[in-house]
Amino acid sequence: MKPGAARIRQALGVAALALGALALWSVLKPPAAAPAQPARPFTSSQQCAECHADVFAEWSNSWHALSWNDPEVRALSNDFANQDCIDCHAPRPVFETGIGNRVLPRNARRGEGVDCISCHMLPEGHISGGLMAGTRDTPGAACRPVAVRDIGSSVFCAACHDQHDTYKQWKATDYAAQGIGCIDCHMPPRKDGKPGRDHTMIGGHSIELVRTAVALRGVREGSRWIAEVENVGAGHHFPTEERSRAGDVFWRPLAQPGASAGASAGATPGAWRHAYRFRSPYRHEPLPDTLLPAHQTQRIPIEGEGSAGAIEVALFYSLKPYWADPEHPDPEREAQLVHRVELVP
Amino acid sequence: MKRALALLVLAGCSDPAPQAPRVPPYELRSVWAAEYAKLAVPPLQQPKADPELTALVGGLVPTIAGSTGKARELAVRDITGLGIQVLPALSAFADDAAQPEGQRLVALDLIGAIDAPECAEALAQRIDIRTTREAWVRAQSCYQLTRQSSDHWLPIGIQQLKYESDSQTVLWLAAALAKHANFAGFDGLRVLAVEGRDDALRAEAYGMLTRLAQEAGFADANQLYLAWYGQDPERKLPHRAPSPRLRAAVWQRIGALADFNLRLVDDARFALSRSADWVVEPLIAALREEQPFVRIHVAQTLERLGPRAQPACEALRAALVEPRMAPASAVALGAIGCGAARAELEQLTAASVDPELRSAAVAGLGHLGAPESVPLLERLLAPGEPLDLRQAAAQALLARAAHPGATALLAECLTALGADAGAAESALEAALTRDAAADEAAKARLEAWQACGKEIVDTPTVEQAAVRRKARQALFAPAAK
Predict the structure, then answer these.
(1) Residue B240 to residue B252: CA distance in whole angstroms
(2) Containing H/E element for A276?
(3) Nearest to A40 by CA among A31, A30, A50
(4) Distance separating alpha carbons of residues A136 and A120, to the nearest angstrom
(5) Which positions in chain A touch B131 (Cβ < 8 Å)?
(6) In a 10 Å sphere around its CB, with 0-12 CB exposed, 13-18 middle and 19+ buried, how is residue A40 labelled?
(7) Which of B293, B389, B462 shows the shortest C-beta gap to A71?
């Protein structure tokens, strides 16, 4: 047999196999769900609203969307003259610098804050061939989403949220060991039953969430009260992130048991007296760092005139560290009530 | 062989494929590591503590504190004559809060009297507000630094300007920096001279400004200030050649631009952008650094240096072809006043260019403020362009002069979805304030603008800010004009 003839037979065999496989695939292939849309460039999160109106609406009401225009941020950053704030308040995509690295600042569309593109856009020529990172592959969609497991990981958030050590704080908790991450509390599954997670991304601006983070109670030791604040639910310190955030414990003699804070009927309650502050100070402030780590309890002796009798103790939370009048703080006006307990001997 | 020939003929006959104009590649290398290694400055070794010297210091410092004249002079000479060997004992005494303040002050004074890099280092460590809580120690350490000839501590000192809140420390830190021809401390002195808490402090700050300016050869502090932040065309500013140790310290800061922590990055940017002009040369070199964070933040540092970084003009223009740093380079070119880059920046506003770079190019043109760019910027106000680009063009136009089209668009941006409402508000307020000086209508509108949200006593909430912006927007509605 000529060597050439063997090669021809071999080639014919391969071709027949390929044709067979093609015929089989044409019978067994799944029906196309929808005609593929052409891939298109995405330059603004507003483009995402065309297909993801509900998620876009959630995000639009989030603090991520407000990260550039929030008056508080603008005041604290000296209207972004503190340029180190820009990188995370108008970030370029996380995937551009890579998960675990920090982000770079954006020049365009700063008004959109931390937007869809910041978290979902993949760099050009990404190995997956996709344009956006998501939780499943949808090759026919215009934004070509591909499943990228790490988009839901806590280290994904670290690019910005570890600038104030929140990720490190979480890493040191039992939650991290149990696999409970950032999104489990801050991006729970959507309540309307639709797939995906809530893009409102509740956090330190939600007093309801703050209330689940800490517990307040009082114990009697001898003739005095000890207030105890326990970090029962935050997967990081209380409070965390911004150094401007503070938790303050106040007390005062009880005017009338059962009356709510600030609205005691009958006898007028006295002024709140400051007992303790949870906060990480600014660099120029000669103060200790008193943030409360996860799972830990801070015991606060209540001292001063009238402290041994019936008292009320309250934990307030504030996004700003300063009182209008530091000598006479008014927490009911300037902060939000987290918990209040009445302690009667 | 025949097949190869046929392919060659075929290739020769076919139409040539269209080719994009060739842009020379932007060469990147490990600049930081190479430059830092080249300097090869060994770290300063603080001598070990010696119990005998500790005892000597413990005995002599109280004597010095309690004596005057010859006796004091002799005791001082005894200690300072020991050189840096006595530094650990003096440092420990100065830090010992149990000792009387007057004696701790003497210990600092003795450290200042020994002119050595190790002593300058020891003093510089005591001006950090995070580690030295006692303001008098920081102020005294700054004063003692004015007696030191070493310059390697300058980046530490400049960085403290960002955080220092004690007026005496601000005064003496400015003086210590000025000794090495660095006038970054003048910002703080000017604030104290105008807003100091009392007449005495204001006079002290003013006196320090005048003295330092005169020592630098200027008739008054304003002239020096303008020369420091301008281009100093007459080269009147005193110049000091940096020591190798200071160069190393500057390269250390350049390396810190790659840090994960943005606060540390900004500290480095702050220190570098307030260094003397010679820092531009290493920054230009670092624009070729292969680590992307470093080169991008170097471009931002040059932006912050403003006109002082004009020698970086060509290097930044070359960097416009490097995609990652091009936006930062475009903004920096405008901020340093590189007029030669105007045409390139204008080209980069084309619709085919990456939106990020387009926005940066418009911001750069805004900084340049060239009248030739006005028609282009006006075209970019068109509704078909992305909102952020239109807003950037409007801000650039309004920063130059009154412009009805730009004003109308910025008023729109006060409430438009996705707009930078805060920047629109700032730009409109700045323009109203400027125009109010010469225009009665603008003055009336400024008053009405300021009246909006007057009831807000603290930082407004999101809702309050939205209400205020809507009210301010109404001032620009056709019926309100």
Answers:
(1) 20
(2) strand A273-278
(3) A50
(4) 12
(5) none
(6) exposed
(7) B462
What single DSSP character describes residue B114?
Answer: S
Q: Are A284 and B164 in contact (CB under 8 A)?
A: yes
Q: Which residue segments constitute the domains of chain A, with CATH numbers given?
A: 45-186 (no CATH), 207-343 (2.60.40)
Pick among B420, B425, B464 to test the A interface (most A CBs inside 10 A) = B420
Alpha helices in B66-116 (DSSP H): 69-80, 87-95, 101-113
Question: What does the alpha-carbon distance between residue B470 and residue A155 come to, in Å, rounded to a whole number?
Answer: 39
pTM: 0.87
Name which of B78, B147, B156 is nearest B114 in CA terms: B147
Which amino acid is residue A245, in one-letter code? Answer: R
- Residue B151's nearest CA partner among B176, B184, B174 is B176
Give B-chain residues touching A111 at CB under 8 angstroms. Answer: 387-388, 391, 413, 418-421, 423
Say if residue B361 is exposed, middle or buried (CB neighbours under 10 Å; 0-12, 13-18, 19+): buried
Q: How far is B241 from chain A (nearest CA, A)?
A: 30
What are the domain boundaries of chain B? 400-481
ipTM of the prediction: 0.86
Residue A172 has pLDDT above 80, yes or no: yes
How confident is the prediction for chain A on average, in pLDDT?
87
CB–CB of B385/B355 below 8 Å?
no
CB pair distance less than 8 Å for A102 and B462: no
Pairing of β A297-301 and β A224-231: antiparallel
Partner A, chain B 67-126, Cβ-Cβ below 8 Å: none
Pair A225, A218: CB distance under 8 Å? yes
R_g of chain B, CA atoms, integer Å: 29
User: pLDDT tens digits for B440-468?
Assistant: 988 999 999 999 988 887 888 899 999 99
B104: CB partners within 8 A, 6+ apart: B93, B94, B95, B96, B137
